[in-house]
Design goal:
The chain has one domain. The chain contains five helices and no strands.
């Protein structure tokens, strides 16, 4: 599964769960967690994240995809600031930025590991010659 597919699935699932929560909470006070209107606002924020991530072409060079995802972080951070008065909604944008950072860090570690292996393989080939 690609980084784009992971993020799309994650935030689509979150949006669906928040909508289900909002429907279940209609005319009820929640026993923890956000109320129905806040759940709907959070679902809309998840939809925005899905739209942002979905605009990135998937299936290309992993480095290009990660760079495009990472470029979303400042936008997500601005959305988080703009929704500071609604902490649960803000958390959606902060969470998305965090997930992207985690994915970028993991990809960087994988890239470093592969580069190290390739360097070691090149060194081994030199020793045989």
């Amino acid at each position: 599964m690609s980084a784009v597919q992971y993020l799309l699935g994650r935030f689509r699932t979150d949006a669906d769960a928040l909508r289900e929560r909002a429907t279940a909470l209609r005319n009820q006070k929640p026993k923890g967690g956000p109320d129905a209107p806040t759940s709907l606002q959070m679902a809309e924020a998840c939809d925005e994240v899905v739209a942002m991530v979905g605009a990135i072409p998937d299936g290309g060079d992993a480095g290009t995809v990660i760079a495009a995802l990472t470029a979303l972080i400042p936008l997500l951070e601005r959305r988080a600031i703009a929704t500071a008065s609604a902490p649960p909604v803000r958390a959606v944008y902060v969470g998305a930025a965090t997930r992207i950072r985690e994915i970028a860090d993991a990809e960087a570690r994988v890239g470093q590991t592969l580069a190290t292996r390739n360097d070691n393989d090149d060194d081994d080939e030199d020793d045989e010659g």
